[in-house]
Amino acid sequence: MKLYNIKENDEQVSFGQAVRQGLGRNQGLFFPAELPKFDDVDALLAEDFVTRSSKILSALIGDELSADKVNSMVDAAFQFPAPIKSVKDGVYALELFHGPTLAFKDFGGRFMAQSLAAVSDGGKITILTATSGDTGAAVAHAFYGMEDINVVILYPKGKISPLQEKLFCTLGKNIHTVAIDGDFDACQALVKQAFDDAALREEIGLNSANSINISRLMAQICYYFEAASQMSKQERENLVVSVPSGNFGNLTAGLLAKALGLPIKRFIAATNENDTVPRYLETGKWEPKPTVATTSNAMDVSQPNNWPRIEELCQLKGWGLDTLGKGKVSDEQSAESVRDLKAQGYLCEPHGAIAYRLLDEQLQDGETGLFLCTAHPAKFKEVVDDILGSDIDLPGPLAKHAAMELLSEDLANDFNALKEVLRRVQ
Ligand SMILES: *Cc1c(COP(=O)(O)O)cnc(C)c1O
């Protein structure tokens, strides 16, 4: 598989390099130089999830990894289902939260862990990442127990929900969690400093595992096919998919699925008040505003880092950006939609409810709607209980971790202190 740097097209890398490096020169994103196209999508959809996903990913990766190898990676990564649930006539929810950390990031995180192990040159790897909640948990669980890979996760002390903290700070082994005396921006600044330190980067084999990594997006393509496979042929002919978006990795993966041949009629780019993209699609002007905090906090992003990939793909395929549906939803409106869905017998948290609301508004006669449920309702228990006046149960993994002891260490917001930690955990 060849990929090129969107910003500096002459930089070409293999799948292995793209996975190890994350980003190209000048912070450019890698993009596949060629996309395979599946002619017989119906036959592909008739396969089971792991077999089909292996075929898709193997076609993308090409001869760099054998088909058997890709199959065993997918088998290890995708150990949980992605079911669709009928919410009302012609509208389905795609539940992406049945993995160990109850959010869709488990798919990408776990496949990235497999990919990194597969393309490693035997040297040390240290994953360093800052999290405000979800990503840290997915990365921690994905890399837990893997040989030769150390994971260091920074998070702002006292600023993530206690439940979220328990989910990834109770693992131990090769997972080291550090509570920084500062906010999320301070954590991100420390990570950036570490990546800017070339000597340190080399010494400990630094890698970020963030959503920029192409292996994460590739894994996410597979569940769009999985959703379509659970519908009748007639239903999936006129399919509209609504994607609750933050950094826009999920929507990029959906558009890639379409490019590979999955017949999706239309996508809806759904955001909360952080609406840089819907405004851009409306006015043609890219004008990020300061990020505002919402109840769908995993989408509180005003400078979405995957957007250049969407522009690149649409341009390559001749898809006008005006064919993308769009919209933003306020906290009040998403709460209303959580209640609306509950009244229809479906429990949903605000991220999914935002996608549902815009789908419901924009779906036309004869179309089938699918909205992505990116997190388990219990992962946002405080918000959901507040909206519904409920006391929802914690599912198994959350309940188990909630009872375990925190293993994090506290650290000052200081780069030298972080360096010591990074060297110590080797
Ligand atoms: C990360 C996340 C999103 C946003 O996904 P992107 O791929 O960054 O657009 C939406 N919902 C939840 C629950 C998330 O964790």
UniProtKB/TrEMBL annotation:
Tryptophan synthase beta chain-like PALP domain location: 90-366
InterPro entries documented for this protein: Ser/Thr_deHydtase_PyrdxlP-BS (IPR000634), Thr_synth_N (IPR029144), Thr_synth_N_sf (IPR037158), Thr_synthase-like (IPR004450), TrpB-like_PALP (IPR001926), TrpB-like_PALP_sf (IPR036052)
Cofactor requirement: pyridoxal 5'-phosphate
Pathway: Amino-acid biosynthesis; L-threonine biosynthesis; L-threonine from L-aspartate: step 5/5
The keyword Lyase belongs to this UniProt entry's keyword annotation: yes
Coiled-coil annotated spans: none
Domain Threonine synthase N-terminal residue range list: 8-78
UniProt superkingdom: Bacteria
Sites bearing N6-(pyridoxal phosphate)lysine, chain numbering: K105
Record protein name field: Threonine synthase
Organism (species): Vibrio paucivorans
Lineage: Bacteria, Pseudomonadati, Pseudomonadota, Gammaproteobacteria, Vibrionales
